[in-house]
From TrEMBL, chains A, B:
<feature type="transmembrane region" description="Helical">
    <location>
        <begin position="400"/>
        <end position="422"/>
    </location>
</feature>
<feature type="transmembrane region" description="Helical">
    <location>
        <begin position="163"/>
        <end position="185"/>
    </location>
</feature>
<dbReference type="InterPro" id="IPR036513">
    <property type="entry name" value="STAS_dom_sf"/>
</dbReference>
<feature type="transmembrane region" description="Helical">
    <location>
        <begin position="197"/>
        <end position="224"/>
    </location>
</feature>
<keyword id="KW-0472">Membrane</keyword>
<dbReference type="Pfam" id="PF00916">
    <property type="entry name" value="Sulfate_transp"/>
</dbReference>
<dbReference type="GO" id="GO:0008271">
    <property type="term" value="F:secondary active sulfate transmembrane transporter activity"/>
</dbReference>
<dbReference type="InterPro" id="IPR002645">
    <property type="entry name" value="STAS_dom"/>
</dbReference>
<feature type="transmembrane region" description="Helical">
    <location>
        <begin position="458"/>
        <end position="490"/>
    </location>
</feature>
<feature type="transmembrane region" description="Helical">
    <location>
        <begin position="428"/>
        <end position="446"/>
    </location>
</feature>
<dbReference type="InterPro" id="IPR001902">
    <property type="entry name" value="SLC26A/SulP_fam"/>
</dbReference>
<feature type="transmembrane region" description="Helical">
    <location>
        <begin position="244"/>
        <end position="261"/>
    </location>
</feature>
<protein>
    <recommendedName>
        <fullName>STAS domain-containing protein</fullName>
    </recommendedName>
</protein>
<dbReference type="InterPro" id="IPR011547">
    <property type="entry name" value="SLC26A/SulP_dom"/>
</dbReference>
<dbReference type="InterPro" id="IPR018045">
    <property type="entry name" value="S04_transporter_CS"/>
</dbReference>
<keyword id="KW-0812">Transmembrane</keyword>
<feature type="domain" description="STAS">
    <location>
        <begin position="514"/>
        <end position="655"/>
    </location>
</feature>
Amino acid sequence: MEPNASSYSSRSFVEIAMEVHKVVPPPHISTIHKLKTRLKETFFPDDPLRQFKGQPLAKKWLLGAQYVFPILKWGPSYNLTLFKSDIISGLTIASLAIPQGISYAKLANLPPIVGLYSSFVPPLVYAVLGSSRDLAVGPVSIASLILGSMLREQVSPTKDPVLFLQLAFSSTFFAGLFQASLGFLRLGFIIDFLSKATLIGFMAGAAIIVSLQQLKSLLGITHFTKKMGLVPVMSSVFHNTKEWSWQTILMGFCFLVFLLLTRHVSLRKPRLFWVSAGAPLASVILSTLLVFAFKAQHQGISVIGKLEEGLNPPSWNMLQFHGSYLGLVIKTGLVTGIISLTEGIAVGRTFAALKNYQVDGNKEMIAIGLMNIVGSSTSCYVTTGAFSRSAVNHNAGAKTAVSNIIMAMTVMVTLLFLMPLFQYTPNVVLGAIIVTAVVGLIDLPAAYQIWKIDKYDFIVMLCAFLGVIFISVEEGLAIAVGLCIFKVLLQITRPKTVMLGNMPGTIIYRNLHHYKEAVKIPGFLILSIEAPINFANTTYLNNRISRWIEDYKEEEEEEEEPKKHSGLRFVILDLSAVSAIDTSGVSFVKDLRKALEMKGLEASETEKHHFKYSFLFLVNPIGEVMEKLQRADETCDFMRPDFLFLTVGEAVAFLMSTVKGQLSNHV
Amino acid sequence: MEPNASSYSSRSFVEIAMEVHKVVPPPHISTIHKLKTRLKETFFPDDPLRQFKGQPLAKKWLLGAQYVFPILKWGPSYNLTLFKSDIISGLTIASLAIPQGISYAKLANLPPIVGLYSSFVPPLVYAVLGSSRDLAVGPVSIASLILGSMLREQVSPTKDPVLFLQLAFSSTFFAGLFQASLGFLRLGFIIDFLSKATLIGFMAGAAIIVSLQQLKSLLGITHFTKKMGLVPVMSSVFHNTKEWSWQTILMGFCFLVFLLLTRHVSLRKPRLFWVSAGAPLASVILSTLLVFAFKAQHQGISVIGKLEEGLNPPSWNMLQFHGSYLGLVIKTGLVTGIISLTEGIAVGRTFAALKNYQVDGNKEMIAIGLMNIVGSSTSCYVTTGAFSRSAVNHNAGAKTAVSNIIMAMTVMVTLLFLMPLFQYTPNVVLGAIIVTAVVGLIDLPAAYQIWKIDKYDFIVMLCAFLGVIFISVEEGLAIAVGLCIFKVLLQITRPKTVMLGNMPGTIIYRNLHHYKEAVKIPGFLILSIEAPINFANTTYLNNRISRWIEDYKEEEEEEEEPKKHSGLRFVILDLSAVSAIDTSGVSFVKDLRKALEMKGLEASETEKHHFKYSFLFLVNPIGEVMEKLQRADETCDFMRPDFLFLTVGEAVAFLMSTVKGQLSNHV
């Protein structure tokens, strides 16, 4: 029923203003029901069982199967048009996947062929289980970096290569297990705690670290530091200047410039996506030919060397579930799992928003987790949806996850037949490819935007960045997450309180400081608390309200014309913005009321006699707050109609009229 | 200026309802000014420098000295009347302090005389520096328990008594350092994170643990477990039944009953406080006489044995700042420091509220910290304001901190002359005294109150209690604090969203579910978000609002009479309860607006053409939120007058009138 304007106009404003609504407690809900609702909101906010409502049983089975294996949903409607688009995009990302796979595996201190293995099996698993149409799956730079660095702290990849490989596969297994568990237990909201600012700072820092590591191959240095931080790397670079090889530097520089140019071209004109997509593979081919032609491997340019051939060997016998390295493996799995999950989910959501379809976060986690679990048994290491590769996939016109299948097939062909071709590929070109790939992770416009909107977020971002560069990747991330949570807790522990005033000519009350036309009402102190009231802030609120009262009294004294009946008589607390209250909060209200009584606000004896219960009044408590006040009522006597009001206007009008009535009785 | 009723009555309600106020950004404040305000609110919420304003320089020096040494404030006005009250209360708490000091020192595995040392120097320090008039300072049960148990994990008090004592003093030093630092750095709000529910559960658990430890002396067992948990203690008790000594049990039982009876009497009639205050000392004297008379120490009752005499020897040479135990000492100091600080501050605040004077939390922390630092150099271990002793002090009529001085003097006399009297005091009586003292820490009525008001708080309390009993004291506390913070984060990550409806006959909009008389407005979906919008909940809010929209459409379909122009046309978000927003929140608003456009709400072509900017409207953003929206305006175009409204009523009225106007143009 629309609010009927005519029914209002017949009543005078005074009548409407004087109307006092009863503030009622919300309808009673049993604790069990509330618990069920809370669990549902926490773990199933997207209500995945919606679609099952009111369907016949056979359809429910079908919907269930389609829910678990999304390929059953889009598979049957697949046609040639889609296939054409997918072939193009599949081949495009394959041309990226091959050089990147080899490069990233070296970044993780693993044999280069493991990178190609990881571009074969995981995309196939994802195509069956995943929900995103644009996600291109494979090894990624940051997870490779973290895996390599964390394992290298305890095991040397050069002295114990077999053990290192075993630990890498075991870490992948645990990463997958952790990711799938998060998805099963619907705990996906945990990755929400990595705020966008944190991620921007973190990824930029990681990009710098990865680039610094490439200085080894770009300069041709043999003796390089094991550490990752900026300072050790730079000192290693400048202490070993005699190891710099001019041939390597020349080749690296040329190819780096070439790759960065092609990237720039594709950024300017997205239609020329194939330029930057094909450039890495072209560089690999070109540089291999150069090295082969000039026999440059004997002239100071290091090459990959002979690689194995063939498809992924099974590796479940390599997984280690016991022994002294179990702690290391679990910790590495956890960190790489969380980072790669965050990237994969963020990429999936970004493209889903662009193309306006839904991606179920928890389901994606299960898909990525299973992908890693299966991969760990087929010689693959940690993989996820990579941002740059998915962007190319998207720009190349991918329509479904079949592009991942096409890519996997191409990689399979490479593994079976084309491996000897990489024998003469120089490491320097792989370094240049990695640097070009991670440069895109440094997002300066976004950082500037954050600086403009929220300085604290900017500081968090800077701390993540500096922590990663100077301390370590894991600790930089932990510091950033800690700062985010601390910010949230700080906002709670120091809530804002504002004084409200009346907007003249209306019954609206707003923040005096914000709206200049609002005016104070003499004798009334109207405060609004803008946060939940809980154990973390009741002490502060007590202090703050005492200060408000003292400030009010001071200002009254400073006024030149002492008015009749002036002085602070009533304190009204607007609880519209108080979203929750706990037992400490209820005590706080009770103690505040008692303290005001004892302070003896400057009411006349008449008023004191009339308002002997309270000089404190509450306005508009929301449902949950109301319930707690009601339950405390037996000891605190909160539910009186002259204590709780629906709006500030009603409270002021009621109190003023009652006081006038009393005074007139006594004149 | 009071809202003038007459100026309203002359205007019709329609005129007033149609008035649309411009939502303005708050006045600009520089970042520096905002940072200063935020720092001030965070660290100086009680504005301690208030009193210094506008005073001549000499007075400022005096006020400053009085601020640092409160004794200079109340000292000069001290008189005989106050002294009379303080003598009585001082002697009363001394009679408690002597037996408790000996008992608690044994609880901490320290020589009994250290407990008396700790009742001599610390109260003197507190009398000079402290602000509370009722706090009675000395060793406390829980801190003694924690100190003893944490140090005993690594060092045996029986085999290495000198080392144990050194570590205890060093821990006391670090505890005091930590406490004073918290006070200096104004980080006092950290202890606010120990919510009342947590503390009740924790103290009850600690009381049980302490009582279980006393079973050793109450039953006369020699071989007792080193562990603290319920299970090890019980198995130790029932495995060593042949060590139970009937004489000890008999004596222990009698005195325990006597002490509990006196405690009960004093609880019923607070005027008989001296009964329970004097009972421990009376028990000590009586039992010493009994043992001496019957030569009971040869009959199975263990006694304290010969104690040293004399005042506190200096112990700064015993403090250890290096070596392998440094980590243990720092950790123990931290935990005991936090716990004793919490108790001391809570006690001080409780009695200050009762007697209506102010206690500066941070200043108290400095006082307690310095007390412990000085104590560690004078053979005292961790002390603080004890709850039971302060209650006795208060009931006995203490007027100032001089009662602490009187107590210290009495203890001094005891140390100098009366120590030989304790030679025959049986340990079982000390155990009975401890049990009686900690029984008061179990607060069942408060626990029941928590159960009634907030079930989650009750679970936190229960976890603290069970954690302390079954795992360990430190870990039980850590679990409870973690649960508190998790609850706060969970509330933020799953904020409440409610649908608002119009209260008929007014322009007030309230929660439909809470106020049964509120009605929906067809074509409008009015939501209120009841929490800050930040990185932790934007994903959830996106899902939730999509669900609200789908639910709305489903309900519309189910209605029997399809109305003309029905269907969801506008989404109004009421931001009154959104206390803060960050960069993720700003992105959320932007993306929501775009998503609504793409969803194509069921507006007619006319409406779509008119509202081509947005189907989303925001109401009443608070100052800080408004600022962030404004700063994002260049890219997002938020500051349009037809996007932001001051109240829900204004938004609805504006939109309805504009639509009607448009439609009438096209009819």
